[in-house]
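dude i think i finally got it to work??
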Amino acid sequence: MVIDPRARRVDGESVRIARDVLSAGAGGEVRVCVLEQGEALPKALARGNGRQLVIVGDDRALLRAVRMLHSEGHLSARPLGVVPVGGSTAVASALGVPTDAVAASRAVLTGRTRRLDVLTDDAGGVVLGTLGIPAPRGRGPASGWWRAVPFPRPPRQGRPRGRAEQRLRVEADGRLLADQDRPVAEVSVRAADGLADVVVRPGPREVEVRARASSVTVSGPTGFSYRANAVDLGPTRARTWTVLPGALHLAGAAP
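look at this
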């Protein structure tokens, strides 16, 4: 069990509860690692010696662990549990993880392990759930806009407020879905069933384009922002996302 220091500062009682429930349920066979300021996460996780990892912390702690395991090639080899404690828990909640410390801890002990597809990008990032372009304006990290479900259709009367159309080139496995000669209102990408569901929405009077692909590349002459893992990222001029089928083994999450 790896305890993020922010979780202890924000909600030490929930951390204690998670530790007690996990230790009791595992017959005391729980090795606890409390990260201290400045301690490298890779060293902390390496002490697990192949055991199942349980992260006690917020979305940032979960994503740091996922990125680290991916960078070392161990993401699909080690089941990962999470007990959401601390700041934003929108990502964990969208993945089906209980947000209550007791329920989440019990789910890790008794729940089945789900294999989830993830998106990885050419900058070393990992996306859990749906990403959207552009990043919505004026919304915080816990916005309900980000969900691990298919991207909702916009109202028929026009594009969503506050999102300007932009010139983007979108390719799915080399197939051109949009080019810079026409404006694009929205793009969404979500890993599901081994491939990425890609939706490109042009202006309000044009038909959206859908595709299934293993790799998606988006580029734009002036750069673009995007929202992934409940966080706004960018701007960047180009980014490629690739699907890793079943790469994340998440323990205790509801289907």
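The two ends are 23 Å apart (CA to CA).
im so relieved honestly
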